[in-house]
Amino acid sequence: MAGDELENYESDMELQLYREYKTVVGLFNFVVETERRFYLANQVDVKTLSNAGEVYFELTLTDAWVWDIYRQGRFVKAVKVLTFKDVNVEELNRDELQIPKEGLEN
Fold first, then answer.
1. CA distance 59 to 61
2. CA distance to 1, 19, 57, 94, per residue, from 5 (Å)
3. How far is residue 24 CA from its own chain's centroid?
4. How confident is the model over 42-81, as pLDDT tens digits?
5. Which segments of 1-104 are extended strands (E)?
6. In angstroms, what CA-CA distances link 96 with 25, 41, 82, 93?
7. 106 falls in which pLDDT band (50, 70, 90)?
8. How many C-alpha atoms does 26 have within 13 Å on its Cβ side?
């Protein structure tokens, strides 16, 4: 596969993933961002832990969707993440997920 073909393939996969995200985002309560992954989840538990002076985070996500173009199955029942990097957890506002009717008219 040539470089351009690979780039086009990855662009197509990313577009498909974005469309899937737009379809499923309304099913979840939280957005979780780590250094390596982006998740949607219905339950999130974050624990701050330390070992030998190093602080890290343990996240447990339940009923999650994983943003990853290389995963065949993006829906997972439970995910456990350990990270030394920043973690961002946001609760989704259901009203923001709806497209305003006036935005559809031109």
1. 6
2. 6, 21, 39, 39
3. 11
4. 999 999 999 999 999 999 999 999 999 888 889 999 999 9
5. 30-33, 38-51, 54-67, 75-83, 88-91
6. 11, 17, 30, 6
7. very low
8. 8
